[in-house]
Design a protein that fits this description.
By secondary structure, the protein is an alpha+beta fold. The protein has one domain. It is 32% helix and 24% strand.
Protein backbone atom coordinates (compact mmCIF):
# COMPACT_ATOMS: atom_id res chain seq x y z
CA UNK A 1 0.00 0.00 0.00
CA UNK A 2 1.42 3.36 -1.03
CA UNK A 3 -0.09 6.82 -0.90
CA UNK A 4 1.06 9.63 -3.16
CA UNK A 5 -0.92 12.83 -2.67
CA UNK A 6 -4.56 11.88 -3.16
CA UNK A 7 -3.81 8.58 -4.96
CA UNK A 8 -3.65 5.35 -2.98
CA UNK A 9 -2.05 2.35 -4.68
CA UNK A 10 -2.61 -1.19 -3.43
CA UNK A 11 -1.54 -4.64 -4.63
CA UNK A 12 -4.08 -7.15 -5.87
CA UNK A 13 -2.46 -10.01 -3.97
CA UNK A 14 -3.32 -8.73 -0.49
CA UNK A 15 -3.86 -11.32 2.23
CA UNK A 16 -6.92 -11.18 4.46
CA UNK A 17 -4.87 -9.49 7.20
CA UNK A 18 -3.65 -6.87 4.73
CA UNK A 19 -7.20 -6.25 3.49
CA UNK A 20 -8.35 -5.64 7.06
CA UNK A 21 -5.42 -3.27 7.63
CA UNK A 22 -6.26 -1.50 4.36
CA UNK A 23 -9.87 -1.05 5.47
CA UNK A 24 -8.79 0.33 8.86
CA UNK A 25 -6.46 2.73 7.07
CA UNK A 26 -8.81 4.00 4.37
CA UNK A 27 -12.16 4.37 6.19
CA UNK A 28 -11.13 7.43 8.27
CA UNK A 29 -9.26 8.93 5.28
CA UNK A 30 -11.78 8.21 2.52
CA UNK A 31 -12.68 11.90 2.10
CA UNK A 32 -9.05 12.77 1.33
CA UNK A 33 -8.38 10.07 -1.26
CA UNK A 34 -9.47 10.70 -4.85
CA UNK A 35 -8.19 7.56 -6.60
CA UNK A 36 -7.52 3.97 -5.53
CA UNK A 37 -5.22 2.23 -8.01
CA UNK A 38 -4.89 -1.55 -7.95
CA UNK A 39 -1.59 -2.96 -9.19
CA UNK A 40 -2.27 -6.24 -10.94
CA UNK A 41 1.24 -7.71 -10.76
CA UNK A 42 0.20 -10.56 -8.48
CA UNK A 43 -2.76 -12.89 -8.08
CA UNK A 44 -6.13 -12.11 -6.55
CA UNK A 45 -5.86 -13.96 -3.24
CA UNK A 46 -9.23 -13.06 -1.78
CA UNK A 47 -12.51 -11.90 -3.34
CA UNK A 48 -12.96 -9.89 -0.14
CA UNK A 49 -10.84 -7.19 -1.78
CA UNK A 50 -13.45 -6.79 -4.53
CA UNK A 51 -16.20 -6.47 -1.93
CA UNK A 52 -14.27 -3.84 0.00
CA UNK A 53 -13.54 -1.80 -3.13
CA UNK A 54 -17.23 -1.91 -4.13
CA UNK A 55 -18.19 -0.85 -0.59
CA UNK A 56 -15.79 2.10 -0.75
CA UNK A 57 -17.29 3.14 -4.09
CA UNK A 58 -20.83 2.98 -2.63
CA UNK A 59 -19.72 4.97 0.42
CA UNK A 60 -18.12 7.69 -1.71
CA UNK A 61 -19.37 7.50 -5.34
CA UNK A 62 -16.92 10.15 -6.58
CA UNK A 63 -13.98 7.95 -5.52
CA UNK A 64 -12.23 6.70 -8.66
CA UNK A 65 -11.33 3.00 -8.70
CA UNK A 66 -10.34 2.19 -12.31
CA UNK A 67 -9.92 -1.51 -11.44
CA UNK A 68 -13.66 -1.82 -10.71
CA UNK A 69 -14.52 -0.31 -14.08
CA UNK A 70 -12.79 -3.25 -15.82
CA UNK A 71 -15.50 -5.60 -14.45
CA UNK A 72 -13.39 -8.70 -15.18
CA UNK A 73 -10.11 -10.27 -14.10
CA UNK A 74 -8.45 -13.56 -14.93
CA UNK A 75 -7.08 -15.46 -11.96
CA UNK A 76 -5.42 -18.88 -11.93
CA UNK A 77 -7.04 -19.47 -8.54
CA UNK A 78 -10.63 -18.33 -9.30
CA UNK A 79 -10.66 -18.45 -13.11
CA UNK A 80 -12.29 -15.54 -14.90
CA UNK A 81 -14.08 -13.34 -12.38
CA UNK A 82 -16.77 -10.93 -13.56
CA UNK A 83 -18.52 -8.43 -11.31
CA UNK A 84 -21.17 -5.78 -11.43
CA UNK A 85 -21.39 -2.94 -8.97
CA UNK A 86 -24.02 -0.27 -8.77
CA UNK A 87 -23.30 3.35 -7.89
Amino acid sequence: MEINGDVLTIDIDMSMEEILEFEEFIRPRIDYIEVVEVEENGLLRSPTLLSLLASLKRTRPELQIPFLDKKVISSPIYGIVHWIYHD
